[in-house]
């Protein structure tokens, strides 16, 4: 990781190396945090955050589910984020917001622990690599299933939930894949370790619904919008595992991954084994907005 100059902690800019918490903080022992990740892009017209307001709004939703009363307004956090980007002198960066339970008690009841918050901005390339975005990546179906709604609140983007994601990712990498795709307990496609999944079939775009235990991504929502504007039929529907293998195209989406084509799943070639025309069309439309090449008619790019 390439370190930046400052991290925002509880309302103050702190030197990167001094941004520390106590080892007995509740979050260390129980994963009691909610978080967000978004990106800032450098363009010819300046730096812009991609849908920062939507990401901050989702941070508050996640916090509400876990009974975390964030002591800042959404606008406070947006302002702090933009200030941090400027102070770190980053034209483009990844942005991480974390709300977490601090140091007081170590029991399971977290409500006596102070609620703390940090914001970090730092340089981070696409999650699955620039070459992966260009040529496609190899994925597998994971042996680990995704969380289900009656066990944990999957609509919350919470730190502890991502232990499941780590198992999916580690298994995939250990077996020579770039990432894994988790299924629901019923055997339907859910999502990647940290990305949403799309497939193209017979000219239409399919993606699992919220009922599949996915986190409905901000980038996912953007892609659905872009696809509909280009005349594609978009269906949110349950997809069986074998539906992945017979897809014409497949790709991951997410803030960290952006749009990453999938060229094979479980060593089965998807389509022609390279990014297909629909994937490339959506990639081009998305990239046109985030780079400033094309006019942002949606108001997604928020100036720093």
Task: Using the alpha-carbon principal axes, give the shape.
Answer: globular
Name of the CATH architecture of the largest domain: Alpha-Beta Barrel
Number of separate strands: 16
Q: Helix and strand succession? A: EEHEEHHEEHEHEEEEHEHEEEHE
* Mean pLDDT value: 96
**Portion of residues within helices:** 25-40%
The CATH class label of the largest domain is: Alpha Beta
**CATH topology grouping of the largest domain:** D-amino Acid Aminotransferase, Chain A, domain 2
* Integer tally of domains: 2
Q: What is the distance, rounded to the nearest whole angstrom, between the alpha carbons of the first and last residues?
A: 23 Å
Main sheet: strands, sense, barrel: 9 strands, mixed
Oligomeric composition of the shown chains: single chain
Radius of gyration: 19 Å
Number of helices: 8
Low-confidence stretches: none
Strand content: 25-35%
Would you tell me the structural class of the helices and strands? alpha+beta
CATH superfamily of the largest domain: D-amino Acid Aminotransferase, subunit A, domain 2
How does this structure look, described?
The protein is α+β, with helices and mostly antiparallel strands. It has two domains: 6-122, Aminotransferase class 4, branched-chain amino acid transferase, N-terminal domain (D-amino Acid Aminotransferase, Chain A, domain 1, 2-Layer Sandwich); 130-290, D-amino Acid Aminotransferase, Chain A, domain 2 (Alpha-Beta Barrel), CATH 3.20.10.10. The protein is built from eight helices and 16 strands. The strands form two sheets. Strands 7, 8, 9, 10, 11, 12, 13, 14 and 15 form a nine-stranded mixed beta sheet that branches. The protein has a seven-stranded antiparallel beta sheet with strand order 2-1-6-5-3-4-16. A hairpin with a 5-residue loop joins strand 8 (179-183) and strand 9 (189-192). Helix 2 packs across helix 3. The mean pLDDT is 96.
């Amino acid at each position: 990781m390439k370190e930046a100059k400052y991290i925002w902690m509880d309302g103050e800019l702190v030197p990167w190396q001094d941004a520390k918490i106590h080892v007995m903080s509740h979050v260390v022992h129980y994963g009691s945090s909610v978080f967000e990740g978004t990106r800032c892009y450098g363009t010819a017209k300046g730096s812009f955050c991609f849908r920062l307001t939507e990401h901050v709004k989702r941070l508050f939703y996640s916090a509400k589910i876990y009974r975390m009363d964030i002591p800042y307004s959404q606008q406070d956090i947006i302002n702090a984020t933009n200030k941090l980007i400027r102070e770190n002198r980053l034209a483009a960066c990844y942005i991480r917001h974390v709300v977490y339970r601090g140091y007081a008690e170590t029991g399971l009841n977290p409500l006596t622990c102070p609620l703390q918050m940090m914001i970090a901005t730092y340089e981070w390339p696409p999650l699955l690599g620039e070459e992966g975005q260009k040529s496609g990546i190899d994925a597998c179906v994971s042996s680990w299933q995704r969380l289900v709604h009656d066990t944990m609140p999957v609509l919350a983007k919470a730190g502890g939930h991502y232990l499941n994601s780590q198992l999916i990712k580690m298994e995939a990498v250990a077996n020579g894949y770039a990432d894994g795709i988790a299924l629901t307990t019923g055997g339907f496609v859910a999502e990647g370790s940290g990305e949403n999944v799309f497939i193209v079939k017979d000219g239409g775009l399919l993606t699992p619904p919220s009922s599949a235990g996915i986190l409905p991504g901000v980038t996912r929502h953007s892609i659905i919008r872009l696809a509909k504007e280009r005349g594609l039929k978009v269906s949110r529907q349950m997809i069986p595992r074998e539906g992945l293998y017979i897809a014409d195209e497949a790709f991951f989406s997410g803030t960290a991954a952006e749009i990453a084509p999938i060229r094979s799943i479980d060593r089965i070639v998807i389509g022609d084994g390279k990014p297909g025309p629909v994937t490339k069309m959506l990639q081009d439309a998305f990239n046109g907005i985030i780079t400033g090449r094309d006019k942002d008619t949606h108001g997604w790019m928020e100036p720093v």
